[in-house]
């Protein structure tokens, strides 16, 4: 008796497509009501490409304030690294008042969907420059920063420990490119016990004199809309990031989309945008710009699911990639 196997005559390309569908692992977190995607198929294909390439080819680039930290908790805003400095240990009441006036003036401009990045750029420079000048006048002491962070209500997003620990365990570099205050940022991560060796930070760092008093800010000002320059001038020089063409990028502003511009010969870049505020006004621009948009989502559920998906299955291939490059 002769048995006929009908699919044996099916074109190879079709068989591979069927096999891909049968073996494809779904990510349930992408079905959350807070998740928006313009092209779901492209997102899934990018994730699968990252999976096949393995952990050794991946790097994560992220903003900090309102991206790795929460935007709000119990209906109350969570402080940014600049806001953490609003502590009587560090600044006086007059400085607090002036910083809040600047926030009320410039933050609406930063998130105004009707303005172009070119229009916003000089205003952002103006904002951060004025804030830094105010802070310098306060003669902030370095040895008081840790206490100010401890007394603040700063909070990393739910699931942050899984995020940081997972990347460290699989030796995937995490580059944090922040327009905040680097010294405060480091202290927040340190006090949450996730400042691992794979974490690299580019931010606005304070310059203290020999007595530990703030006298200036180091280097070029980093703000929301010039992160491309920061990525090109600093990130490209980090040896740990070389040979990792796949990027998971996390941000909460359209300006964050340029953070991967310093990556040499990128192959797969997946962008995730946290839409925290003025949702209806900015939803369309975020969907058109980020691959995945997370609406008022205070967790790291989606980034963690994406990372666990490729890394869990391809740790071995990632290790082999690293070994090959080191030879």
Radius of gyration: 22 Å
Strand content: 15-25%
Largest sheet: 7 strands, mixed
Biggest sheet, strands in spatial order?
A: 1-11-10-9-2-5-6
Shape: globular
Q: H/E series, N to C? A: HEHEEEHHHHHEHEEEHEEHEH
Mean pLDDT: 88
Q: Which residue ranges are poorly predicted, with pLDDT under 50 across at least 5 consecutive positions?
A: 18-23, 310-327
Structural class: alpha/beta
Distance N to C terminus: 56 Å
Q: Percent of residues in helical segments?
A: 40-55%
Number of helices: 11
Number of E strands = 11
Pfam family, one: UMPH-1
Subcellular location: Cytoplasm
GO molecular function: 5'-nucleotidase activity; magnesium ion binding; nucleotide binding
EC number: 3.1.3.5
């Amino acid at each position: 008796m002769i048995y006929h196997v009908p699919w044996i005559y099916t074109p190879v390309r079709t068989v591979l497509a069927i096999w891909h569908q049968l073996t494809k692992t779904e990510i349930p977190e992408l079905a959350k009501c807070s998740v928006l995607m313009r092209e779901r198929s492209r997102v899934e294909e990018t994730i699968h490409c990252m999976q096949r390439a393995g952990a050794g080819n991946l790097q994560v680039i992220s903003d900090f304030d309102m991206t790795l930290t929460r935007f709000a908790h119990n209906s109350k805003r969570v402080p940014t690294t600049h806001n953490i400095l609003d502590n009587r240990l560090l600044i006086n009441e007059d400085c607090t008042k002036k910083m809040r006036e600047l926030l009320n003036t410039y933050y609406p401009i930063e998130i105004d969907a009707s303005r172009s990045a070119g229009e916003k750029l000089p205003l952002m420079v103006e904002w951060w420059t004025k804030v830094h000048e105010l802070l310098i006048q306060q003669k902030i002491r370095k040895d008081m920063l840790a206490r100010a962070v401890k007394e603040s209500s700063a909070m990393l997003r739910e699931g942050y420990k899984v995020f940081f620990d997972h990347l460290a365990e699989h030796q995937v570099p995490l580059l944090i490119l922040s327009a905040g205050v680097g010294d405060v940022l480091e202290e927040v991560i340190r006090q949450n016990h996730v400042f691992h060796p794979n974490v690299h930070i580019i931010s606005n760092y304070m310059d203290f004199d020999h007595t530990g008093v703030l006298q200036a800010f180091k280097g070029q000002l980093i703000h929301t809309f010039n992160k491309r320059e920061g990525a090109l001038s600093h990130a490209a020089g980090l040896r740990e990031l070389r040979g990792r063409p796949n990027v998971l990028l996390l941000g909460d502003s359209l300006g964050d989309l340029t953070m991967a511009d310093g990556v040499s010969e990128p192959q797969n870049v997946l962008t995730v945008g946290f839409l925290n505020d003025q949702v209806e006004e900015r939803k369309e621009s975020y969907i058109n710009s980020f691959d995945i948009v997370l609406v008022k989502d205070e967790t790291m559920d989606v980034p963690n699911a994406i990372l666990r998906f490729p890394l869990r299955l391809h740790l071995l291939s990632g290790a082999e990639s690293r070994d090959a490059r080191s030879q």
